[in-house]
Write a structure and sequence with these properties.
Number of strands of chain B: 0
Distance between the termini of chain B: 51 Å
Structural class of chain A: mainly alpha
Shape of chain B: globular
Largest sheet of chain A: none
Strand content of chain B: under 5%
Radius of gyration of chain B: 19 Å
Largest sheet of chain B: none
Number of helices of chain B: 13
Oligomer: heterodimer
Order of helices and strands of chain B: HHHHHHHHHHHHH
Number of helices of chain A: 7
Largest interface: A-B, 34 and 56 residues
Amino acid sequence: MSTHDQESLEGESLEGDAALCTELRAEARALRAAAPRDLSAGIEAALAREIALAPRRSRAAWLAAAACIALAAGALLFGALSERDTDGPLVATQSSSPSPDLLAALPRTLTPEILVARLGPGFEQPLRAELDSLAADSRELAQTVLGGVPSPVRRLLGLP
Amino acid sequence: VPDDAANEVNDEELARRARAGSKECFSELVRRFDATIYSFLWVRTGCPQDARELAQETFLRAWRKLGHYDPSRRFSTWLFTLARHAAVGHLRRAPRPVAAEHAPEMQGTREASPEHEASRREELGRLWSLAARVLKDEQRSALWLRYGEDLPIPEIARVLGRRESTVRVQLFRARERLALELAAQARPVSPGRERPARGRMESLAPSKVLGGAGGLGGDA
């Protein structure tokens, strides 16, 4: 775009356009002078409220962070407990489980050791695999729960 | 900062001190710019009440975001940018026609005080009221920043987030549209139809504003 074109676009080189611009400027001055007198008072009052509320907002932010940490700790605890509670009963669902008669003869509460002792060494490996799988599921669940925890809190708790 | 001393300090220095925590310096900036920002927002929204609320919001945002202000830039440009963002957000939250359909509201259909304020501003700024009716948001903003605030084109481009060439075109089109509207208002009417009220604006149209046959259109 040439300099002449730019001047034309700005338009003030034209006599008639200059009259319009002058009038716009004059009206703008009048409008600004007629702005309400109490504007700055209103702004100052809002600013004072803002400044007064700032410490409270800061406290609220800290409380929210503390709540997040507590939630994360709770979720971790839940994950750990879930891992411990999934030992015996679910063994019956594995594909290599023994016959129903044998299972019916088993005591209600089983530890892996009792189970392996009763079923024989052939069952140890699938049993361990099942327990590992359950533990992995629990960890995944805990991570899903912790997904909403802010990253600084996760770092603080040593989570990935 | 004592009042006399504050008057001698430029806007950018005041902003720097406000950023360092001086509430007094920020108050001085509020006093310097309240009418300016209010008028810009009035032109942008066309409503005195909205302009008042958005001016307040703009200064609160400025206070919160002072840390982001770069004192090597003009403070007014930064403030106008915040005001524009506030206006855009406001219109997005409560979309309202601000061109032709908005004219009745500018004449005041709300509560008493804004109505009075609106009619007074309508009286004081007939051209700007016309601009509010016929121009687009951004054309109006560009026009105000150029002729209301005397900002140079690069600063206007920065406030509006546009290229300088775009701003030039917006200004050209805004003036052209205003001139055409003024010409239409001053055009002789057919018998039996009432002629629009004659006033100060008529002295600008059509021959003077359009510069006869050449004028804006011919030079474009």
